[in-house]
Design a protein that fits this description.
The chain is of the alpha/beta class and about 375 residues long. It contains 13 helices and 15 strands. It folds into 2 domains: about 240 residues, 3-Layer(aba) Sandwich (Aspartate Aminotransferase, domain 2), CATH 3.40.640.10; about 130 residues, Aspartate Aminotransferase, domain 1 (Alpha-Beta Complex). Helix 1 runs antiparallel to helix 8, helix 2 packs parallel to helix 8 and helix 9 runs parallel beside helix 13.
């Protein structure tokens, strides 16, 4: 199946006239496409929504994560603990700042970093722990935070997939010193590309702004000010554009509607799939709010998973594996890093499959998807 020709794709970007109006407003004014008022508006709105004092926007979630680690001034022999069950950027960030990365296995319920295995992985070199909230479901962040605090380890949340998800009514992104979000094309809130970091630390807020924009310390719009800028340290061009920020604002204004639609679709999926004994559904534990950036199921084996994916593809239904273990990629095996045993990561990665999930997914779409899956298992039983 060729790209973009899927009958039912894995995701679609939810949009309406609000995004068009927001972008048109920026374009029509003929200036401040780079550092317009939308940047500050978005940052204040995101901080308010998440529940933090500060927010710094970036041109991608990857640059946001890179900036997050740069703000700690890590040394070469200092270590960052991350899960291997994640997008590769999570593990690349420590390497980008010339520090060490160490992988920690996941637990079987939330598919997040296992708190007990995190604790066993701590050494004198451990400075930061960076768990992810997989697919829109928070990891066991309270347990991880408690262990990090006891061991004086900084906690950064990789919440790229999970804006709006909660633990005991508290938003992810507020448990650590920093919370990283992504607005890439398949995320809950999307502007095509984009990212942000939220924090309650004024020091980190000011540091991140310098990193984001050439190490330039200024209170004015660089492009419309006659003031001579002050460059105080090394920085990058990781600013979000005003057009991107306008898209984010339009999406943020209806984010709860988008999340509720995903949750309703997940509920219907579960109703249709719960009768199939061979499928393990990624359920929402008590006290956790799952926002379903992905709808992932676990199959009995890699062979069955791969066969089902091919059957779905023949029917024009896209499915995808999120994620293959990072520690097993060619990129990371080349580093020859001594790692922990990754039993759960490797087992779940071989069996996980993400099905189509987006707000506009219809009941008819889900019926078609689940009918194909049911027929697949019925044929297996009869053979």
């Amino acid at each position: 199946m060729k790209k973009n020709n899927w009958k039912i794709p894995l995701y679609k970007v939810s949009n309406d006239s609000s995004e068009i109006k927001a972008v048109s407003k920026v374009i029509k004014r003929g200036m401040d496409w780079a550092i317009g008022p939308e940047i500050e508006e978005l940052e204040k709105s995101l901080a308010s929504y998440i529940g933090t004092k500060y927010c710094v926007s970036f041109n991608s979630g990857t640059s946001a994560g890179h900036a997050a680690l740069l703000s700690y001034n890590l040394k070469k022999n200092e270590q960052v603990l991350v899960p291997s069950f994640s997008f590769i950027a999570t593990a690349n960030w420590p390497l980008m700042v010339n520090s060490e990365v160490k992988f920690v296995d996941i637990e079987k319920e939330n598919y997040g970093m296992d708190p007990s295995k995190f604790e066993k992985s701590i050494s004198k070199k451990t400075k930061i722990v960076m768990p992810i909230h997989y697919a829109g479901l928070p990891c066991k962040i309270n347990e991880i935070k408690k262990i990090a605090k006891k061991n004086k380890i900084s906690l950064i949340e990789d919440a790229a997939e999970s804006i709006g998800s909660k633990v005991n009514k508290r938003n992810v992104g507020t448990f650590g010193e920093l919370g990283i979000f992504s607005f890439a094309g398949n995320k809950i809130l999307t502007s095509g590309e984009g990212g942000a970091i939220v924090t309650n630390s004024r020091e980190k807020f000011e540091k991140l702004k310098l990193i984001r924009s050439h190490g330039r310390k200024t209170v004015d719009n660089y492009f419309s000010s006659i003031q001579t800028p002050k460059y105080v340290e090394l920085g990058y061009n990781w600013r979000m554009s005003s057009i991107t920020a306008a898209l984010c604002i339009a999406q943020l204004n209806k984010i709860e509607k988008l999340i509720n639609a995903r949750r309703q679709n997940a509920k219907y999926y579960q109703k249709k799939l719960q009768k199939i004994n061979e499928i393990k559904i990624h359920e929402e534990p008590k006290g956790y709010k799952h926002v379903y950036q992905l709808y992932s199921i676990q199959l009995p084996s890699k062979i069955i998973r791969d066969r089902l994916s091919k059957v779905l593809a023949k029917k024009g239904i896209m499915s995808k594996i999120f994620f293959d273990p990072i520690h097993m990629t060619k990129h990371f095996t080349n580093y020859k890093i001594k790692q922990n045993v990754m039993t759960n990561t490797e087992k779940i990665s071989e069996r996980i499959l993400s099905l189509p999930m987006y707000p506009e997914l219809t009941r008819s779409d889900i019926n078609e998807i689940t009918d194909v899956i049911s027929e697949f298992f019925e044929k297996r039983e009869s053979n």
